[in-house]
Design brief:
Length: 637
C-alpha cells in the first residue's frame, strides 16, 4: 500500500497547479476576467449586506427608547430594500460566474481529452507495453473528472473565499479588535485541525485514485477474457483476485473518507464554539461599556446625537456575529476542498506525464512516393546534401545484418540475426513460442529500434526512412485481429482510406471473404461492434486479410494470418494470396508448416537465433529441427 501512495503522490503540486491554471485560463482570458469580476461582486455583496444589519438594529433600539427622530417604517424599509438589492446583486453574480466557469471547465476538459487522444496516436508501443489499458482509460475518466470538480467548484470557491476573508477582516477590524482576537484564536485551531486531518486524508485519497485505476484495468481484462474464464472454470479464482484489488480500493477509500468526514464536523463545532465566544465577549462589552471592550473606530465615528453607546455595541455585535460565520465559512469550505485539490493535482500530473511523453521518433528524411519516379511505381525519395532528391525504386529488398535486440538491456531477444529477403520472395519463420519470430517483423515496422546491427530496405537503413512512410509500404495481418465499430466495408477500407467500394469488394473476393459477407444481414453495410463479436474468429481474420490486401502494399507481413481458419478455407486463401504476392516480398510466420512449403526460404528460430535456413526441400534433406517438426518427431510449443 505505501508503494501505491508513492506512485500516486503528486511530485510537484505547485508546478502542476500553475500549469493547469495556465492551461485552463490562458485560453479564456476574457471569460476569466468576467469570473473574477462576478466573484468579487458576489463576495463583497454578502459582507456589505451583513454590515447593514447593525444599522437596522441600532435604529430599532433607538426607536424603542424614543431617541429616534424618525418613525420605524422610514428607517426599516430603506435598509431592508437596500439589503435585498445587495443580496440580489450577489446572487446574480454568483449565478453568472458559475455558468461561465462551467463553460471554461468543459471547454478545458474537451481540449485536454483531444490533446491526450492525439498524443496517444504518436506514442511508441513501448509506452503501451508498460501501461495497462485500464490505467489509460482511467486518465480519460477518473483523472479528468477530478479536474472538472477543481475547475467548476474548487477554484471559484477559493477565489470567493479569499475575497470574502479580506472584506470580512476589514469590517471586523472596524467593528471590534477585541472580538477579532477571539475569532482569530479559534481560527488557529481550525487551521491546525485542517492541516493535521487533511494531510492524512489526502494521502489516502491519492492511494484511492491509484487503486481505482488498477481496478479498472483488472475489470477490463476480466471482461475481455470471460470466455477463457468460463472455459477453464476460473470464476472462483477471478472472484478472489477481484476481492484483493477491490479490498485495496475499499481500504484506501475508507481511510480517506473517514478523515474527510471527521474534518467537517470538527470544523463546524469549532465554528459554533467561536460563535458562542464572540457572543459572550460581546455581551461583556455591552455590560462593561465600550471603552473596556476596546471598540474600534466604528462607534467613535458613528457616535453622534442619533446614536448612543449601547445601541452601537448591540448593532455591532449582531453584525459581528454574522461576520464571524462568514469568516469561518470560507476557511471550512476551502478545507473541505483540500482533498479535491490534491486528487485533481495528482490526476493532472498523470495526464501531463502522458502528454509530455516523448512521441515516437518519426525517423529519417526519406519518404515514400507513388508515381513520381516512374508512372505507377513506388519509390523512395531520398534527399541529398545539395538539396536535390534521389529516387530509389521500391523493390522490397530487406536485409538484417548482425541484428541484436532486446525489449530491455538486460534481456536480449534476438542475437546476431542475419537474413535477406530479395524482391518478390516469400520468407517464412518457424520456431517455438518466444523464439523471436514476431519480434523480427516488429523490427521491420520499427515498432522497436535495435540495439546493434542494421536493417536495410532497398539498400536504405530503415532508420533513415520516415516511420509513417515505412509502414505505408508494409501490409500487416496480425495473429490477434482487431475490428473497429463500423460497417464491414469501412473495416476493409481501413487498409487504404481512399479505396473505392469496388476495390474493397475485390480484396474481399481475393481473401475469400466475399461469400460470407454476402450472407450477412446487410452485406457489406452490416455494422460490426465489440471487435466484431457477431462474427466468428475465422471470419474476423478473413476481414483482416482483406484489409491488408486492399492496401496494395509492396511488402506483406503475415503473422499467423491463417491460424484461426479451417484447412479448406486456408487453401482458398492461399490461392488468392498467391495472386496477391506476385511481385511482392512476403514475410510469413506460421505454426502450420504446410503453409510455408512453397516459401523461397524458411528460417528456423530457437532462443533468438537462426539455427537452420533453406527451402523446404533443403531443410528436409538436412534432417534437423525442421525435419523433426515436419515429420512430427518434435512439436512446436
Amino acid at each position: 500500500m505505501p508503494k501505491a501512495s508513492k506512485s500516486a503522490r503528486a511530485k510537484a503540486p505547485l508546478k502542476t497547479l500553475k500549469r493547469l491554471l495556465a492551461y485552463s485560463f490562458s485560453r479564456n482570458k476574457l471569460a476569466t476576467c468576467f469570473v473574477v469580476f462576478f466573484v468579487l461582486i458576489a463576495s463583497v455583496a454578502n459582507v456589505i449586506a451583513a454590515s447593514r444589519v447593525s444599522v437596522i438594529v441600532d435604529e430599532l433600539i433607538l426607536i424603542s427608547n424614543g431617541d429616534a427622530s424618525t418613525n420605524l417604517w422610514e428607517v426599516i424599509y430603506p435598509n431592508v430594500i437596500a439589503m435585498a438589492c445587495i443580496y440580489l446583486a450577489g446572487s446574480v453574480s454568483s449565478f453568472s460566474y458559475n455558468i461561465i466557469m462551467m463553460y471554461i471547465a468543459q471547454g478545458t476538459l474537451k481540449k485536454m481529452r483531444d490533446e491526450m487522444f492525439a498524443k496517444m496516436q504518436y506514442l511508441p508501443l513501448r509506452y503501451f507495453d508498460t501501461h495497462t489499458h485500464g490505467d489509460l482509460m482511467s486518465l480519460y475518466t477518473n483523472d479528468v473528472d477530478t479536474m472538472r470538480q477543481l475547475l467548476t467548484q474548487t477554484i471559484p470557491q477559493i477565489i470567493s473565499s479569499a475575497i470574502t476573508l479580506v472584506a470580512v477582516l476589514v469590517f471586523m477590524i472596524m467593528y471590534s479588535v477585541t472580538l477579532l482576537l477571539v475569532v482569530l484564536a479559534v481560527l488557529v485551531a481550525i487551521i491546525f485541525a485542517t492541516k493535521y486531518i487533511g494531510s492524512r486524508s489526502a494521502k489516502n485519497f491519492l492511494i484511492q485514485q491509484k487503486s481505482l485505476g488498477n481496478l479498472n484495468g483488472f475489470v477490463e481484462e476480466m471482461t475481455e477474457g470471460q470466455k477463457v474464464i468460463k472455459v477453464f472454470c476460473h470464476e472462483q479464482k477471478a472472484r478472489e483476485q477481484f476481492k484483493v484489488v477491490n479490498d485495496e480500493l475499499y481500504e484506501a477509500g475508507r481511510k480517506a473518507n473517514s478523515y474527510a468526514f471527521v474534518l467537517g464536523p470538527i470544523n463546524n463545532n469549532l465554528g459554533y464554539l467561536q460563535y458562542v465566544l464572540v457572543a459572550i465577549v460581546g455581551i461583556l462589552i455591552m455590560a462593561l461599556g465600550s471603552e473596556a471592550g476596546l471598540l474600534s473606530i466604528y462607534c467613535s465615528v458613528l457616535n453622534a446625537d442619533k446614536f448612543n453607546r449601547v445601541a452601537c455595541v448591540a448593532g455591532m455585535l449582531v453584525s459581528f456575529l454574522m461576520f464571524s460565520r462568514q469568516f469561518n465559512m470560507p476557511v471550512m469550505q476551502v478545507s473541505q476542498q483540500f482533498n479535491a485539490i490534491v486528487m485533481a493535482l495528482a490526476g493532472a500530473e498523470r495526464i501531463f506525464e502522458m502528454v509530455d511523453t516523448l512521441p515516437e521518433d518519426k525517423g529519417g528524411d526519406t519518404v515514400l512516393t507513388y508515381g513520381e519516379h516512374e508512372a505507377g511505381k513506388w519509390a523512395w525519395k531520398k534527399p541529398n546534401t545539395d538539396g536535390s532528391f534521389e529516387y530509389i525504386p521500391l523493390k522490397g529488398d530487406i536485409r538484417f545484418n548482425d541484428v541484436v535486440f532486446g525489449y530491455t538491456d538486460e534481456k536480449v531477444i534476438l542475437k546476431n540475426i542475419s537474413l535477406y529477403a530479395k524482391p518478390a520472395q516469400k520468407i517464412a519463420f518457424v520456431g517455438s513460442t518466444g523464439a523471436g519470430k514476431t519480434t523480427i517483423t516488429n523490427l521491420i515496422n520499427r515498432f522497436y529500434d535495435i540495439q546493434s546491427g542494421t536493417i536495410t530496405y532497398d539498400g536504405l537503413d530503415i532508420r533513415s526512412i520516415r516511420k509513417d512512410d515505412l509502414r505505408k509500404s508494409l501490409g500487416v495481418v496480425l495473429q490477434d485481429t482487431h475490428l473497429f465499430t463500423g460497417t464491414v466495408m469501412e473495416n476493409i477500407r481501413y487498409g487504404r482510406l481512399n479505396a473505392s467500394d469496388e476495390d474493397c469488394i475485390k480484396a474481399a473476393k481475393l481473401a475469400n471473404a466475399h461469400f460470407f459477407i454476402s450472407h450477412l444481414p446487410d452485406g457489406y453495410n452490416t455494422m460490426l461492434k465489440s471487435d466484431g463479436a457477431n462474427l466468428s474468429q475465422g471470419q474476423r481474420q478473413l476481414l483482416a486479410i482483406a484489409r491488408a490486401m486492399v492496401s496494395e502494399c509492396p511488402v506483406l507481413i503475415l503473422d499467423e494470418a491463417t491460424s484461426s481458419i479451417d484447412t479448406r478455407t486456408e487453401k482458398l486463401i492461399e490461392q488468392g494470396m498467391d495472386k496477391l504476392m506476385e511481385g511482392r516480398t512476403v514475410f510469413v510466420i506460421a505454426h502450420r508448416l504446410s503453409t510455408v512449403r512453397n516459401s523461397h526460404a524458411i528460417m528456423v528460430l530457437e532462443h533468438g537465433e537462426i539455427i537452420e535456413r533453406g527451402s523446404h526441400e533443403q531443410l528436409i534433406e538436412q534432417r534437423g529441427k525442421y525435419y523433426q517438426l515436419y515429420t512430427g518427431a518434435f512439436e512446436l510449443e
